[in-house]
Structure formats: structure tokens, C-alpha cells
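Subject — a protein and its fold
Fields — amino acid sequence, C-alpha cells
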Amino acid sequence: MHLKRVCSIVFLQLVLVGYLCAQMSLSDTIRMDEVKVYGNLRESHSIGATIYRMDSVKLKIFQNRSAAELLAMGSVNLKSYGVGGLSSLTMRGGNSSQTIVVWNGVNIQNPMNGGANLSLFPVNMFSSIRLQYGGSGTIYGSGAISGILILNSNALFSQPNGGELSLSYGSGNTRSLSSQVKYGDKSRAISVKVFGQLADNDFEFRNIYKIGSPKERITHAESKQLGILTDVNMRLHEKLFWSFSGWGQLGDKNLQPIMSSTQPSYANQVDRSLALVSNLSFSPSKRILFNLKNAASLGVIDYSDKGVNIFTNNSYASILTELESKVEVLNNGEVSMGINHTLETASSDDYVGSAKRNRVSGYASLRKPLFRSRFLSVLSIRGELVDGDFKPVIYSVGAEWLPTKKLIFKMNASKNYRIPTLNDLYWASTTYTEGNPNLEPESGWGGDVGFQIKSISSDRAINVSNSLFYSNIERWIVWLSIPTVSDSKWKPFNMSKGESWGWESQVDWSLRVNSLTIRVEGFYTFTHSVFSEQPGSRAQPMIYTPTHRFSGSLNLQYEKYGLGYYHGFTGKRYRDFQSQLPAFNLANLFISYKFNLLGKVVTAGLSVNNLWNQDYQLIAGYAMPLRSYMFTINIDFTR
């Protein structure tokens, strides 16, 4: 039913495309370079925010891996239930539901749990990955209290024609294949990306829950994964641009037992998802742009555990229609306005009935440079109606001051809110869990201030940034264990207040000397995150949030040779309110060599993961691998 509705909307959009083309004569020279596509438009309104962009070297190294593995070596905190298990991202002391995930301009989080399983996101699917920190993403929608993960795949005109094929084999009997092909010209282009992986995931680990911490192998963790993503870009006229993206993903994963378990695991989860995005951009002049977006995010999650005779079926759908306009005003200023309708539905064997939610929002954002662009400012505001009820109006303000070409001072502040997830509201009362239909939305404010130093020359570049951040959230939704007659169960509650503050620091330095390129990156984050159950009560730590986190990398490229070393330190984290998981260091080493074969560029690479053979856990009780290896061959068919 949902898919038919989406296809009907896309068909009507195509009819509109044909009508507009018939009304306009196609000139010999197509001039669409001035038109800003949707993703770039929103990025230009992120003034004052801290943004980190993954470089192409990282994306290439991790192309046969998941976004979870890539982000685990970065500046953010990752929670993972074992090898290839459910992996979610948290930023600035928040939880995973407070960090939204956007693909090609659309929020693709599961409305049931408010998260996205990053272990099912192959890196090769994306042409760019960036992180936006804090709650300044008003233009992206409500709920972005802690930050945004922004994924893009559809910028085809800037990519050369050709293709790549990559094959990997590694420890845990992991076999991966990824390929991509792109073909087109200045007016139309298509790209197809495919990813597949089979893995036994029987890695070695030390079982610290047993006397003597013996070495064992992870059991019942086999996984299968298949994904395909297609992007289409068409310049239909000098004033008309259309893009379409479709991404299908299948994951079949056996769920490993916790280390303390004395019984084998029979649990399995199958994830099927489909995301569709259609954008039609019309620019009657260089100063005006209209964008019509239709999108759908559909998913089915089947969970089974034959050991205890549990079989549950869960499905969700999120259907979006959005109209946005951009107008240049006030001497290089820019106003972006839009209206959005999103329908969210979900069905689960564990729900009290079926869940449905209608969300209508309107937003506006003014971007204005002043003093010959030495001062940049943005003001964004958003109002939302959820099932007929008005929610708090949110806003964000950002500014950047450039006293010199190399120094930038930044600030932003925002009022934020996040409505409960469908699981929070509709989960039926079971032995271990229970929803809470009386939950209220989280609401609060946050901001950060900082500076950035940038210096770029022909052979070297340096980028240093520092920022202080603070967030205060009222009615923070937290799942807590409550006592029952026989045991206990988990249930979500609105806490009195959640508070997080800290400091982020980043250094990025690169140097080119003849055929040698050196790049060094370093990140440090200090985070203090707590919440209070009642006014005046003792503050409790936010679980799985490290106070200290550091990550750094060294990349060397010399002619045909490449070397990369990635190191991450994660400090102690509370697993509950009394006990902590120990700190750990995690390092990966990458070595590559390029050569020509039959006129094609071939890259052979070897990666050593967990180089120093460290014991660590991301979630208490779930084993993570000791040292492991992966060998990769990549063939480049680019013209």
C-alpha cells in the first residue's frame, strides 16, 4: 500500500517534469551549474556549526566495511551489540535517538526505535559522509538534539564515468564484494552500486567472565548482507533538474550470546529496508529555486529465537512530501522556506494495536553575510503539528566572524525538542519491557562556541578547531529497570532533566613533498553527561558515554605505496549506575600497493584490525574480536 502511494507520487512528478519540459524550449547549452541541489542548500545554512567531513582516503580504505566500523575510528561514540550486531551512533553525551541520520536530504531513522543500524550501511554506497555536531540542524527537522550524520550518494555530475570492483577476504571467514558503475554526460547520469558480504564472524576473544579469561571463539554470529543503490541525475532544461535515488538493503544476522551465557543462542534477525527519494528542482532565475521532494523509507524486521519459541514481525513506513524554496534577498542574503508532511506507521507483534502518526511542519531560514562577508549569520525557525497537536516552536541561530582569512570564530544556539519513538509509546506490557503512552516530548536548548584556524598553501594545509558545547534537556526519555513481582522490566520515563557539556578539539595537518603525501588527524572529546530522575535528586551518569575519547590517524602516500595507522582511545563508561566498563585502545593498520594490469589500476591492500590485540566491549557482555586481518583487491575501470 505504501509502495503504491510512493510510486503514484513519483509518476505524477514525472508527468509534471514532462509538462514543464514541453513548456520550455531546450537550449543548446544547458546551464544548471548555478542551481544548488538540495544537500548543498541545507549545508549553506549550517553556519556556526561544527562539521567534520570524511576524506576520500578514509572512504576508500573502508569501502568494503560498514559505516559503523568507519565511525568507530572517528570522533564520535559508537554502541555495538557484538560483531556486525546492532550499531548506533551517539554524539555529545546524547542517546542514539537524539542523533538523526540523513541520506540525500531525508531522515531515514526507523520511527519505531528512533535509530539507524549503521552495521547495515556499506561505506561504498556513499560519495560523502559528514558529521554535524549539536542541535543547530533545525532546517533538517526536529529531533537533532545531539547532532546529524549526513550521507550523500547522488552528486553524479562531479564524478567521472567508469566503475570499480573490490573483493575482500578476511578473518572470521569474511567475504565481501562491492562494485559501482557510473555513466552519463553533462545532462544525464546514472550510477549503480552493489555490496554483498558473507561472514562466519567466529573471531577469537578472551572471555573475561570466566576464570583465567580463556581464549574462545564467538559463536552463532553468522551474517549475510546484500545492498543495491541506484542514483539518477537529469538536467532536463537549463532551469529544471531531477534526481532519483533508490536504496535496498537486506541483512540476515544470527545474534551472538553474551559472554556470561552458559546456553547456546538461537536468536536471529532479518532486516529488509527500502528507501526512495525523488527531487525535482526548478530555477526560474539565478536568484530563485524551488524544490519538490517525495520520499519513502520502508522496513521489515523479523526476530526469532527458537530456543524460547519467540517469533515477532515488525514493519514500519515513513512517507514524506516536502516543498522548499530558496530566494536570494538583501544583497547576497538567502531565505529558505518549506513545508513538510510526514506519515509514520508501524506494526509489531509486541505493540498495543498499530501505530500511526501524522506530522506537518513549516520552516524558514535566513542566511545573511555582512561586512563584505567577514561576518556570516543564519536564523532558522520551525513549527510542527503532530496528530493535530502543536509542538514547541524550535529555532537555531548561528554566526561566524572572520577577522582574518585564516581565523574563524563560531557560535550557535538552538532550542530543540524530540517526540517519543513509536516503541516508547506503543510497546505492550511483556515480561521484560513495557511502553509508556503518557510520555511527553523532550525539550530544551543547547549551543556551542569555538574557533577554527585554517591555512592552505600549494603543498601544505592545517586546520585546527576547538569548541565548547552545552545542552540542557527537560523531560529526557530514558528506559529504566523497574521492579516487578517476580523480577524487573524496562520501561521509558521522562526524567526531570538531562545535561551534557564538554570540549571538542580537532587538528588536521597535511604536507606534500614531491611524491610523498602526509596527513595527520587528531580528535579529542571531553564529555560530561548526566540526568536527574526528580528535581533535586542526585544526578546519574548517562550510560555508555565516555568522559574522554581520543582518535588519531596517520596516512602516508608515496607513489604506488600507501600506509595508514588509525588509533582510538575510549575512556571508562558506565554500564549501569554503579559499575563501569574499562577504558580501551583500538588500532588499525592499512597497507596498500597500486599497479597496472591490462591497462587498469589495481590496488592491493592488507588491513590489520585491533593491531595491539586489545580486549574491549562496546556493550557489556558482548565479545569483540581480538586481532584480525583482511586482504582487499580493488580494480578501477574509470575512464
Remarks:
- The radius of gyration is 24 Å.
- Confidence is low (pLDDT under 50) at residues 9-39.
